[in-house]
Amino acid sequence: MPVAGLIALGVLILLAAVPLFVAPFQTSMLARMLIFALLAVSLDLLVGVTGLPSLGHAAYFGVGAYAAGLVAKHWTAAAPVPLLAAVGISALAAVATGWLAVRSHGVFFLMLTLAIGELIAQLAASWSGVTGGDNGLSGIPAVEVAGQPLTLVGYVYWYVLLFAVVGFVVIWAVSRSPFGAALRGIRDNEPRMRSLGYSPFRYKLTGFVLAGAVAGLAGGLFASQQFSLVTPADLGFTTSALALLAVAVGGAGSLWGPAIGAALVVLVRDVYGPDLGGHGTLVLGAAFIMAVYVLRNGIAGLAMSRFRRSGRKEDAV
Amino acid sequence: MAQPVLSRRAALGMVGLAGLATAAGCGNSVGGGPSGGSGSSGGGAVKVGLVIPQDGVYTPLGVDLRNGWQLYLDQHEGKLGGYEVETVIADEGEGPDTGVPAIQGLITRDNVDLLVGIVNSASALGSVEAIAAAKKVLVIANAGAIAVTGQARNPYVWRASFTNAQAAFAMGEHLAGQQPEGGVYLMAPDYAAGQETFVAFKEAYVGGGGTIAGEALTPFGTTQDFQPFLSGIPGSGAGATFVFYSGGEAVDYVTQYAEFGLKDTVPLYGSGFLTEGSVLEAQGEAALGIQTALHYSTEIDNAANADFVAAYSDAHGVLPTCFAVQTWDSALVLDLALAEAADLSGDAISDALAGLGEISGSPRGPWVFDGQTPKQIEYLREVQQGDGVLINAVVDELGEYAQ
Amino acid sequence: MTGWLAENFVSILNGFAIGSLLFILAVGLSLVFGMLDVLNLGHGALYLIGAYVGYQFTGGVSSWTGFLTALAVAALFGLLAGLILSVATRPLVGRGHLDQALLTLGVALVVAEVISIMFGDDVQNVPAPPGLDDSVQVLGNAYPAYRLALIGVGAVLAIVVWLVIEKTSLGALIRASVSDREMVSCLGVDDRKVKAGVFAFGSMLAAVAGVLGGPVYGARTGLDETVLLLALVVVVIGGLGSVRGALIGALVIGQVESLGRALLPDFASFLLFGALALVLVVAPRGLFGSKVGAA
Predict the structure, then answer these.
(1) pLDDT in tens, B110-161
(2) Chain B residue numbers touching A133 (CB-CB < 8 A)
């Protein structure tokens, strides 16, 4: 698909050029969008590709953020060590919890991930000696590249962009690989895949851990911004629900759709939200409703020239 | 199954989105320093960022804070220290995940000269570094965490409200003098403010020879039914209960304290927030007789307070609260400081604030900055029936307390 | 043993009171879920509507007329809301639970925000009607009379609902739909009316629970989320579509929230979600759940 490749390259160049002609506040806002987009794309691997709707995905984002923050604060802030810690520890968390969660289906999986996410958030709030409790983890030093801390907003943005692209490419590659095809197969018809000799549990668990690890990467990037604060709320239901909204608005399964959906959510909440006089939740609720009725396949669905629902049974969700 | 495809429309959409975001702010993020300089329109005007909750459980406090701030400006022709004031309001929301970005937005996007407000201590603690780096003065109008002007202190962060310890310590000393038979039972929510209250109270009370009959830290934000915790009080033999609760938890606690028959058997004492503002209305008769310690009451007998209460009631139809006084006083100290300051830089304003002596003219009585936070009188108040409404009548002055 | 019982008696009693309230709240959610396969995340918002109706019509004053009017109005609102929701979710049949979850979540957010705009964010108290607003002595401990009455109301309602479900033809239809949705439609029954009816009935109960819960939980923003979570846990434990399950689940969670918090205060915050996770992992169908459902 050369056209798609060219467009992707163009978008990348545009994003890379941002700090050269955009003011600091807007640049940091775009960095937030990139981070949230990465989270949404990782969730899409679970929801859209594997058909596992999770309401607790932000937990791995938060675990990664705390891990990166703690490593930077107490050990070293030299890149990419905090990020590696973020990915590693969130992957561990995903293995431990996914092993339990992936056995359920549909709405039970939905509620179980919700419960797990909230338990992890509660843990972060209670373990105040380590995580700072409800006050959150502050005083995280800016990430250091080659010994120099990145304090200029533009440099931090490039750092975030680099690794966000890496994360996106990883998910993209997985989705396009035979492994990704197997995940889609399990989403569409798990019994048939089992009869073909695949072990759905193993595939789903691997997908879950991958998604969790990339979410952790996003969390690590979140903690690398200057003056960042990691709080239990970043692990909780609201963040997970927002990520799910981004996936729904963007179009589950398309991967790039949720990235746009995430940018929109951040735009509405953080850029326009304060002007709504505290009633941003109203807009959010309306967005959920719209996403279901009007954007049935999300923005990606609108952009597609043909519907992809033929050949797909009822969602395994 | 077809792989995801990028169509022309989608690409245009993405470019459009990026354009939308960038159109909002042209500039450069790699030259120069981390943020722009002073953003005031120059000569005679000051841009103040007011950080208050406008969404979620703390909204009523945000309303009071805003009213107090606006009242002072209205009474002084919209000027502080001779400068014309432009107020930019930012919504801190319910917690630091929304509070800290709101504060950072005021600094980097709106380029305010100084900041006022903040209800949630976590948001305050999470922002002190950014404030110090930007060299802008912040006058906290609520957040009571001790660390803000303690461990985490920096010259730019000032506070015109209180520390969580003050009221608790004052009450601790008072009860140590009262010596209730059987000791005191302590309860508070399990987060920073509640924990700091416990520490301060015990220091004063136990230090003064009292005994603790029992204590319970209740899960913060998820406890609507206090019965499981209240059931421990009768059995402990306590002669009094001291608590810290505010907002919805205060309403629930006081109402249930009466419902479970404890009101008549074990007198209830608290930090003033237990019966301050709209929660008193919701508590109704269940609150009568509760004694609390706080740095303010509408019944304080001085000229400034009489004027303040009258002006506030005229403007808003309800009695003011300590929150309104806190922003009113923030405006007062800024008025005094800006008149003295050489210019609007953070260093100049900070020096001017440090040079202020005793603050007179405040509704809460005379107070002074001690370690960048008020050293002030704590009043012993009791909930009584006033003129058709419940009031916190001043029973005694407990003395001056520093942080 | 008796010493422990006496010490914790009030907590246990309280657990029954809370459990009663939770039953009234959750039975609707369970039936709608079991029978219609619809996950209504807006159920908490229905409770919130009821709570504010209670606040509005009692006006902070203890009165029977106010309270009963509130009950009637809330029931009406609940019925209407249920009908609207059943229509709103009809096009989503076959599209999976994620879409339902998003839709009902969106509705819940909008409703909660509208209520916040209408009533403000202050915490409101809803007084119990006269005669019940005092405390009675139970085994030497004072306990609010209203909560005792709540236990009675819950018991009566449980019996009524049980009678309807077990002894009437409508009840048989509901039980059949929970067991095998497709077969019932094959029998030529106009299941749309039955579905709308069940949705309306369940929502009405949720709104009524909001009024009944007023003297216990008051009316405030954020109550819908708290209450929804409790209802979800009850439904999961009891099993979808089962009235008996909703009752047992409600009583269990009532005790977890009361006795559990009294005995294990350090773990209080983990109890509820921990219980939910445990049941979902060990026995996802719940105690009395049907085989068909959301698998």
Answers:
(1) 899 999 999 999 899 889 988 998 999 999 999 999 988 888 889 999 999 9
(2) 191-192
Q: Tell me which chain A residues have a C-beta less than 8 angstroms from the C-beta of C269.
A: 122, 125-126
In terms of pLDDT, which residue wins out, C61 or C93?
Answer: C61
Quote the domain boundaries for residue C113.
11-282
* Nearest-CA distance B96 → chain C (Å): 18
* Of residues A111, A291, A292, nearest to C280 (C-beta): A111
ipTM over 0.90: no
Q: Does C120 touch chain A (CB under 8 A)?
A: no
For chain C, the domain total comes to: 1
Residue B191, chain A, CB below 8 Å: the answer is: yes
Q: Which residues pair with B87 in a beta bridge?
A: B48
| Whole-number Å distance between alpha carbons of C84 and A258 | 30
All structural domains of chain B:
2-162+302-371 (3.40.50.2300), 165-294+379-401 (3.40.50.2300)
Q: How far is A22 from chain B (nearest CA, A)?
A: 4
Among residues C249, C216, C220, C218, which one has the least CA distance to residue C232?
C249
Q: Given a cut of 80, is residue B7 above it in pLDDT?
A: no
Please write the tens of the pLDDT for every residue from C180-219. Answer: 777 777 887 777 788 888 899 999 999 999 999 999 998 9
Within a domain: residue C293? no
- Considering only CB atoms, A154 lies closest to which of B4, B14, B30, namely B30
Q: What angle do CA C22, C26, C27 make, to 5 degrees?
A: 120
Q: Name which of A315, A257, A266 is nearest A291 in CA terms.
A: A257
Is the pLDDT assigned to residue B304 strictly greater than 90?
yes
Question: pLDDT value at position A274?
Answer: 62
Percent of chain A residues past pLDDT 90, beyond the cut: 44
Q: Length of chain B, please?
A: 403
Helix (H/G/I), strand (E/B), else coil: C219: strand
Mutation target to probe the A interface, by most A beta carbons within 10 A, among C102, C224, C225, C236 is: C102
Nearest Cα residue in chain C from B229: C262
Quote the CA–CA distance of B16 and A175 in Å, as a whole number: 27
| CATH code for the domain of C128 | 1.10.3470
**Is the pTM value of this prediction over 0.90?**
no
